[in-house]
């Protein structure tokens, strides 16, 4: 399970302020352009994981920027040492870490910037870029061997 | 709890003091301000009420008027009662943020002591600053004297904070003539005034962390128009709430206010339409002319925004000739009030003749004699059946007569 | 879960993001790394104000928001004042007891790019810091107006080419020195001022926590390498930040109460300014023979500045 999505999946693709005929009219936009981030009581939000949160349809968590990506990072669990470099430096909050473990990539939010690959310290890297349509097994099969240190 | 402030049934206050007492009685939570003549005492007084325990609020003296309104926006989004004061150049500097306050639907109260805009620099009263705010999406109430400055400021909180309105409100008074002239003012007792305004009811409160909100999102061509339309509807619809609040205020104070004030208009043939202290001058002129047999009356928008298109039409539709007085340099156009009154009257069956006077710029005095002269001119137009002078004239100006545009049409 | 003392990255990674993805910042943008870290290093309630700029136009595009806490944008220049106004309201409501939760720990933060911080918002920032509001201002310094296509700001260093200070046959790019805003903020007597960098995540997190915990106005300048306008590959953002801190173009240090200076990161191997510049397209022209002296000039300035910082630290005043 490399491409694990610890996501409030049902929310993905929900669009704020759309109805059957498209974007809503002036009578249905939010007053003062104010956008609430959550539905219901969000007092304890800092202590809730994404999958435990009631995101509103206005939260960009529900949106996707996957179409920005040309190449995607693929994660190889077998090599990863859970250093969390990728987690701390991912600019798109797309590294899914739970209980100090790196579990996968949120491909709806990943823009394919490759920072995670660059900061990965393992040898070979536990994250590598592949074509957007490369299957996981195919990618893992192509994984390079450990590089010898150059003298 | 705030300390008790001793009030007499009748006080002698100038307009600034009257407005500041309204801020105290409304127990404004935050005033972010950058004082400017002639409105300075309003926020100085608020600061002294805080310093002496008469208000449990925060006075934030910032470094510019732009910051004053910016601070007010931040404070208002944080879910409490907010007010400030300004004039003239300060008003101009905060203009950017005025639009942002109304777009975010934040019910800030801004007491504006009207003053001319430079250049040339001038500290006296005219309506240039008030006019600069006319498209900003704020409700604009106009007080003609110190009592009204007090009354309108209290009403402003109740109107703007009403959840079906949620718009910022300006209360205008004329620089020096109102702001610095001590007059009799009858304040409401503190409890009565506070209960009239009521506790602030937050909406989309940034300090309610059970419901985090984003203020000030960007909207482009797909959303901006819808938001501005909704905002426009809110200010047009605020007419009903303004009338309700005025009615409630009358019950408490005995003082009756309307969106458009009319004086001696029941049978008036000629009329002056004006704003601010000029209204009282014009009333005196009309009274005197009535003794001479001229049926003169005065119409004054209490509410400059939303513009009382409906009530103006009603007030003036049976007149023959109307002079609309603009106390702001129109910069290559007819006066704004003239344009708006004319637009309203164009839709009446009677279509009275309408002329425009630019007057009183930079605090130039406007006399009863001049008001009488203007009304008499209207009488002449009425009798001739067409405008016999230039349509736009400058009143009270030294040098050769200055006027523009003519018509022989009725 | 959020944490109070960040021991290591594994532990830090157990915090829950309050800055959400699917914002529209460029791939590899350091802004979001910095913002994420600020929001992850505390579980206090946050009120965040943001100036107009890359961060603002990318995180609150109607009808979406990437912010899981209270957030406000007014204009280009006034986030500091928006935060100050909200902070004043917090104090007023706390006195009156009209807050929903009167005991919750609440922090006020303002973000701005260098354009809105060093230039157009300078007065608003100075005013808010001088007045002593309890808030933290964080400048995301990418040394240009990146949101509008890369114009020069007063944070742009000498020799960088920008759309309004262009390198050409008669110009080596920007001719003026970068404004030392950290020194200016320290001169306000602010209780905590620092310059931090996202590659040094732990120092940055601790600096953020210190600022949030410090009562009064705090200012933090963060280096935010901009792949779009500095012209490097997005994957190298952290590598560029390493070059920035290790060449001492961006020394990492703090100034407490306006005088006590502590260097927070001392590179083991100080690299040359040339190496830092060579990694970026915005300095490419400086490697032509006629402009090489500018690199030497910048190196001299960097050496002098490092010397000054070290002496101030040693002075222990």
What attributes does this structure have?
heterotrimer; A: 151 residues; alpha+beta; Alpha-Beta Plaits; two-stranded antiparallel sheet; 3 helices; 11% helix; B: 410 residues; Rossmann fold; 7-stranded mixed beta sheet; 13 helices
Summarize the structure.
Chain B is 39% helix and 18% strand.
H/E element sequence of chain B: EHEHEHEHHEHEHEEHEHEEHEEHEHEHEE
Rough outline of chain A = elongated
Question: What is the molecular shape of chain B?
Answer: globular
The CATH class assignment of the domain at 64-141 in chain A is Alpha Beta
Biggest interface goes to:
A-C, 56 and 50 residues
Mean pLDDT of chain B: 97
Kindly report the spatial arrangement of strands forming the biggest sheet of chain B. Answer: 3-2-4-5-7-6-13
Briefly note the structural class of the backbone of chain B: alpha/beta
Physical arrangement of strands within the biggest beta sheet of chain A: 1-2
Q: Mind describing the biggest β-sheet of chain B?
A: 7 strands, mixed
Number of domains of chain B: 2
What is the share of helical residues of chain B? Answer: 25-40%
Radius of gyration of chain B: 21 Å
Write the element-wise H/E pattern of chain A from the N-terminal end onward.
EEEEHEEHEH
Q: What is the number of strand segments of chain A?
A: 7
CATH fold category name of the largest domain in chain B: Rossmann fold
Number of helices of chain A: 3
> What is the rounded distance between the termini of chain A?
37 Å
> How many DSSP E strands of chain B?
17
Number of helices of chain B: 13
| Multimerization status | heterotrimer
Written overview of the protein:
The complex is a heterotrimer of chains A (151), B (410) and C (317). Chain A is of the alpha+beta class and 151 residues long. Chain A is built from three helices and seven strands, in the order ββββαββαβα. In chain A, the strands form three sheets. In chain A, strands 1-2 form a two-stranded antiparallel ribbon. Chain A has a two-stranded antiparallel sheet with strand order 4-7. In chain A, strands 5-6 form a two-stranded antiparallel ribbon. The longest helix of chain A is centred in the C-terminal third of the chain and has 6 residues. The N and C termini of chain A lie far apart (37 Å). The model of chain A has no long low-confidence stretch (mean pLDDT 91). Chain B is α/β, with parallel strands linked by helices and 410 residues long. Chain B is globular, with a radius of gyration of 21 Å. Chain B has a seven-stranded mixed beta sheet, sandwiched between helices. A seven-stranded mixed beta sheet of chain B has the order 10-12-11-14-15-16-17, sandwiched between helices. The longest helix of chain B is centred in the middle third of the chain and has 30 residues. Helix content of chain B is 39%, strand content 18%. Chain B has two domains: 231 residues, Thiamin diphosphate (ThDP)-binding fold, Pyr/PP domains (Rossmann fold); 144 residues, Rossmann fold, CATH 3.40.50. Chain C has one domain: Thiamin diphosphate (ThDP)-binding fold, Pyr/PP domains (Rossmann fold, 3-Layer(aba) Sandwich). In chain C, α8 links the parallel β7 and β8. The chains are: A alpha+beta (151), B alpha/beta (410), C alpha/beta (317). Chains in contact: A-B, A-C, B-C. The interface between A and B is medium-sized, with 19 and 24 residues.
């Amino acid at each position: 399970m490399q491409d694990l999505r610890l996501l409030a999946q049902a929310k993905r693709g929900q669009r704020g302020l759309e109805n059957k005929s498209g974007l809503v009219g002036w009578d249905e936009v939010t007053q003062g352009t104010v956008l609430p981030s959550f539905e219901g009581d969000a007092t304890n939000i800092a202590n809730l994981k994404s999958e435990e949160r009631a995101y509103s349809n206005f939260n960009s968590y529900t949106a996707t920027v996957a179409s920005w990506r040309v190449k995607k990072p693929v994660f190889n669990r077998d090599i990863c040492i859970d250093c969390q470099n990728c987690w701390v430096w991912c600019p798109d909050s797309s590294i899914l870490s739970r209980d100090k473990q790196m579990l996968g990539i949120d491909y709806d939010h990943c823009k394919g910037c490759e920072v995670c690959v660059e900061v990965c310290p393992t040898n070979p890297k536990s994250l590598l870029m592949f074509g957007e349509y490369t299957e996981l097994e195919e990618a893992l099969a192509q994984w390079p061997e450990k590089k010898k240190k150059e003298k | 709890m705030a300390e008790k402030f001793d009030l007499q049934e009748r006080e002698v206050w100038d307009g600034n003091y009257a407005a500041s007492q309204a801020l105290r009685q409304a127990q404004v939570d935050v005033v972010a301000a950058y004082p400017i003549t002639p409105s300075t005492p309003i926020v100085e007084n608020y600061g002294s009420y805080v310093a002496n325990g008469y208000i449990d609020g925060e006075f934030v003296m910032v470094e510019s008027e732009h910051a004053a309104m910016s601070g007010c926006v931040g404070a208002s989004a944080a879910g409490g009662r907010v007010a400030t004061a300004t004039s003239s150049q300060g008003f101009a500097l905060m203009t950017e943020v005025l639009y942002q306050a109304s777009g975010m639907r934040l019910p800030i109260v801004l007491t504006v002591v009207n003053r001319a805009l430079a250049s040339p620099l001038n500290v006296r009263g005219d309506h240039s600053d008030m006019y600069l705010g006319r498209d900003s999406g704020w409700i604009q109430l106009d007080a003609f004297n110190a009592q009204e400055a007090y009354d309108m400021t209290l009403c402003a909180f109740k109107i703007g904070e009403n959840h079906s309105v949620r718009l910022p409100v300006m209360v205008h008074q004329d620089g020096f003539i109102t702001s610095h002239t001590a007059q009799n003012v009858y304040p409401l007792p503190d409890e009565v005034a506070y209960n009239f305004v009521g506790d602030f009811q937050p909406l989309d409160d940034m300090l309610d962390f059970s419901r985090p909100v984003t203020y000030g999102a960007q909207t482009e061509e797909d959303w901006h128009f819808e938001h501005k339309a909704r905002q426009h509807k809110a200010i047009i619809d605020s007419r009903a709430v303004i009338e309700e609040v005025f009615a409630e205020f009358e019950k408490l104070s005995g003082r009756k206010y309307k969106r458009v004030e009319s004086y001696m208009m029941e049978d008036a043939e000629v009329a002056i339409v004006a704003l601010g202290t000029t209204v009282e001058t014009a009333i005196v002129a009309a009274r005197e002319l009535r003794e001479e047999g001229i049926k003169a009356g005065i119409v004054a928008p209490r509410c400059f925004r939303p513009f009382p298109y409906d009530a103006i039409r009603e007030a003036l539709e049976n007149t023959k000739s109307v002079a609309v007085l603009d106390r702001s340099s129109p910069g290559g156009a007819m006066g704004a009030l003239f344009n708006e009154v004319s637009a309203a009257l164009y839709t009446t069956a009677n279509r009275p003749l309408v002329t425009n006077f630019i007057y009183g710029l930079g605090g130039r005095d406007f006399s009863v004699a001049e008001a009488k002269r203007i009304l008499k001119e209207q009488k002449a137009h009425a009798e001739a059946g067409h405008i016999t002078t230039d349509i736009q004239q400058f009143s009270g100006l030294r040098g050769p007569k200055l006027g523009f545009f003519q018509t022989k049409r009725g | 879960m959020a944490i109070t003392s960040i021991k290591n990255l594994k532990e830090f990674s157990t915090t829950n993001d309050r800055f959400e993805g699917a914002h529209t910042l460029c791939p590899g943008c350091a802004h979001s790394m910095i913002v994420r870290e600020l929001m992850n290093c505390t579980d206090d309630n946050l009120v965040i104000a943001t100036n107009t700029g890359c961060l603002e136009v990318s995180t609150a595009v109607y009808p979406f928001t990437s912010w899981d806490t209270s957030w406000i944008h007014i204009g280009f220049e006034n986030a500091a004042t928006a935060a100050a106004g909200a902070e004043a309201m917090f104090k007023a409501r706390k006195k009156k007891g009209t807050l929903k939760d009167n005991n919750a720990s609440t922090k006020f933060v303002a973000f701005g790019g260098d354009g809105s911080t060093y230039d157009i918002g300078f007065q608003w920032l100075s005013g808010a810091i001088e007045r002593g509001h309890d808030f933290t201002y964080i400048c995301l310094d990418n040394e240009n107006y990146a949101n509008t296509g890369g114009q020069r700001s007063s944070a742009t260093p000498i020799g960088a080419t920008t759309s309004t200070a262009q390198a050409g046959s008669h110009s080596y790019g920007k001719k003026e020195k970068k404004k030392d805003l950290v020194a200016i903020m320290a001169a306000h007597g602010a209780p905590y001022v620092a310059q931090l960098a996202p590659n040094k995540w732990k120092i940055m997190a601790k600096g953020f926590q210190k600022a949030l915990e410090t009562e009064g106005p705090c200012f933090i300048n963060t280096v935010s390498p901009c792949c779009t306008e500095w012209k490097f590959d997005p994957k190298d953002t952290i590598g560029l930040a390493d070059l920035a801190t290790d060449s001492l173009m961006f020394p990492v240090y703090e100034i407490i109460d306006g005088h006590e200076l502590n260097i927070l990161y001392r590179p083991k191997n100080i690299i040359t300014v040339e190496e830092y510049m060579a990694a970026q397209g915005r300095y490419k022209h400086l490697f032509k023979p006629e402009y090489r002296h500018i690199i030497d000039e910048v190196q001299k300035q960097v050496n002098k500045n490092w010397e000054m910082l070290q002496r101030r630290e040693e002075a222990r005043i």
